[in-house]
Amino acid sequence: MANAVTNSGAAELVAYDDAMSRYQPVLGLETHVELGTGSKMFCSCSTAFGAAPNTQVCPVCLALPGSLPVVNATAVESAIRLGLALDCSIAPWGRFARKNYFYPDMPKNYQISQYDEPICVDGHLDVTVDTPDGPRGFRVEIERVHMEEDTGKTSHVGGATGRIHGAQYSIVDYNRAGIPLLEIVTRPIEHTGDLAPLVARAYVSELRDLVRSLGVSDVRMEEGSLRCDVNVSLMPEGAAEWGTRSETKNVNSLRSVERAVRYEISRQAGRLDAGQRVVQETRHFQENSGSTVSGRSKEEAQDYRYFPDPDLVPVAPSAEWVEELRAALPERPSAVRRRIQAEWGLSDDELRDLVNADAIGLVTATVAAGAPSDDARKWWLNELSRRATETEVELAALAITPAQVARVIALVAEGVLTNKLARQVVDGVLAGEGEPDAVVEARGLKVVSDDSALGAAVDAAIAGNPDVAEKIRGGKTAAAGALVGAVMKATRGQADAGRARLLILERLGVEG
Ligand code: ADP
Ligand code: MG
Ligand code: ZN
Asked: Which CATH architecture best describes the domain 451-507?
C-alpha cells in the first residue's frame, strides 16, 4: 500500500515551458481509421452510419456458432494503398489473429486483428510545423499498419455522465461491430523538444489528409471515423532511456491531440519533480478542462492470447497487384500543396490559411468548376468559413457544393449579382432553396441595372434631396454617394451602384 500511496497522490502541474527546460518528451501515436467500404470486414452487412440499432447485423458479425468470416477485398486494397502512400513495405503473406478478451460490445469474445504479421511495415510520413523561425520539417517513422474490425457501441443509460458508473442499465448496438479499421502505429517520436504538441497535431492532420486523398475513409474526427491514442513520456534532459508513457485514448480532434500532449507533459513533469513515478496507464481527455484523467492501468500487460485465426485464409497480395496499386496512387497532399501554391501564386501565409481551414479540396473543386482561384479562395475562407463557424459544422459539411459556389462567383462576374446579393443567394442555397439561379429567381435578387427601372429610382433620389443635388451640380461630385445610398435603399440593395452613380451625374449635368 505504501507504494500505491506515493504514486497516487496528485502532484502539481508544471508550467509547460518550465517542464520543457528540464525534460525531453517522447511521443507515440496510434491512429484508428474506419474504412468507407460498403460492407463490413468479414461479412456483407452494410456499414451505413445512423441506421436503427442492431439492424445491420448477421450471423458472422454476431458470431453465431458455425458462421464463417470472409475477408473484404476492398479493405485489404485500402490497407495496401495507405501502406504504399506511407512508404511502407507490403507483406507478401500474412495472417489475421484473434485477440482474446471479453467485452459486451464484442460478441465473439475476441477481435479479429493482425498481430505479428501486419500487412504494412516500416514507413514514414513527413510533417511540417510552423515555428517562430519559420516552417520546420519532421519525419515520423511508421512502425506498422494493420487491419482489424471495430467493436459494437455500448451506451450507459440513466447516469449523469454517460459513463457506466451511476448508470441504471447499458445497451449495445452491434451495427458497428465488424466495420473495417486500419490502425497506424508510429515508432517513438523523439527530438521534438517543445514542439511536441504541434508535431503530434501536424502528424494526425497530415495522416488525415493522406487517407482522405486516397478516398478510403471520410476521416471525420468528430464522428469517430478517425481517432487517435496519444502516448507521451518524459525523460530528464540527457537521460539515456525513455520514461514510462501514458496513453490517452480516443482523442477526437486535432486541437485535442495538441492539448492532450501539452497537458501530459505538464502533469508528468509535476510527478517527476515531486519524486513520484509516472504510472503506465490509459487516460481519457476531458474536452472542457483540457486535462486527462486516469483510466485503466497497463502496469501488468494483459495477455490477449493471440493466435492465428483458423477460419481465415492468409492474405497474400501478389507483387503485380501491389505495383499496380502503387502506380495508381494519387498525388500526395504535400505535393498538391506545393503545386497549387505555385499555380495560384500564393504566399506561405495564404497557403497556411487554406491548410488550416481544411479548404484546399473545396477551393480546388470550385476552381475546377470554373471560378478564378482568388475568388474561390475568398469565398471559402471568408464568407463560408464564417457560416461554418456560426453553425458549428466543418466547412465541407456546409450545404453548398463547390459547383454552386462557382456559379455564384460567375453571377457576380457577369454583373447579375453584387457581392451583397451574392451573400443572400448563398443564404438561400444553404437554406435548401435550390441552385443559385433558382434562388436568384425565387427571391428576385437580380441587380437592377436596366436604365428605366434604375432611372426612376435616380429621379426620385434627386427630387427627394434637392440640397445634395445642388452641391453636385456645383461640382462636389463626392456628394453623389448620398444619392447612390438613397437609390440602393429604394431598390432594397439591388441596384448596380456604379451604374446608379453614372446616371446621377449624367442627370445633374456633371462629368464622372
Ligand atoms: P500498446 O499495445 O500498449 O498500445 P505499442 O507497442 O503498440 O503499445 O505502442 C504504443 C505507441 O507508443 C507506439 O506508437 C510506440 O511507438 C509508442 N511508445 C512506445 N514507448 C514509448 C515511450 N516510452 N514514450 C512514448 N511513446 C512510446
Ligand atoms: Mg495501443
Ligand atoms: Zn454481418
From this structure: Orthogonal Bundle (1.10)
- Residue 1 has a pLDDT of 34
Task: Take atom 11 of ligand 1 and give the residue whose Cα is closest.
Answer: 28
Domain ranges in the chain?
26-229+301-319, 331-443, 451-507
Please tell me the predicted confidence (pLDDT) of residue 201.
97
| Ligand 3 geometric centre to CA of 82 (Å) | 25
List of E strands, 427-511: none
Closest residue to atom 24 of ligand 1, CA basis: 233
Exposure string for 209-225, b = 16+ CB within 10 A, e = fewer: bbbbbbebbbbbbeeeb
Which of 25, 432, 10 has the alpha carbon at shortest distance from 261?
A: 25
Total-model pTM? 0.84
Distance from Cα 59 to the centre of ligand 2, integer Å: 29
Question: Which parts of the chain have pLDDT scores under 70?
Answer: 1-9, 449-450, 512
- State the cell numbers at 118: 501486419
131 in Cβ contact with 195 (< 8 Å): yes
Nearest to 465 by CA among 443, 454, 480: 480
230 C-alpha vs ligand 1 centroid, how far in Å? Answer: 9
| DSSP-assigned states of every residue in 328-383 | TPPPPHHHHHHHHHHHHT--HHHHHHHHHTT-HHHHHHHHHTT--HHHHHHIIIII
Ligand 3: distance of its center to the CA of 305 in Å? 25
227, 235, 245, best to mutate for ligand 1 pocket (most atoms within 8 Å of CB): 245
Strands of the sheet with 246-251, listed across from one edge:
89-90, 120-131, 134-149, 180-186, 23-34, 226-236, 246-251, 281-286, 291-297
Report residues whose beta carbon is within 6 angstroms of any ligand 1 atom. Answer: 26-30, 185-188, 231, 233, 242, 245, 247
Q: Which residue from 231, 241, 257, 265 has its CB within 8 A of the most atoms of ligand 1, so it is best to mutate?
A: 231
Q: With H, G, I as helix, E, B as strand and everything else as coil, classify residue 282.
A: strand
Cα maximum dimension of the chain: 98
Measured in Å, residue 76 CA sits from the centre of ligand 3 at 18
The per-residue pLDDT for 416 is 85
Cα–Cα distance measured from residue 480 to residue 510, given in angstroms and rounded to the nearest whole number: 11
- In the chain, the amino acid numbered 382 is N
What digits encode the pLDDT tens for the residues 9-49?
678 999 999 999 999 999 999 999 999 999 999 999 999 98
Q: Kindly report the protein residue whose alpha carbon is nearest to atom 13 of ligand 1.
A: 28
Euclidean distance between CA atoms 210 and 204, whole angstroms? 10
Q: Which atom of ligand 1 is nearest to the CA of 244?
A: 23
CA distance 494 to 487: 9
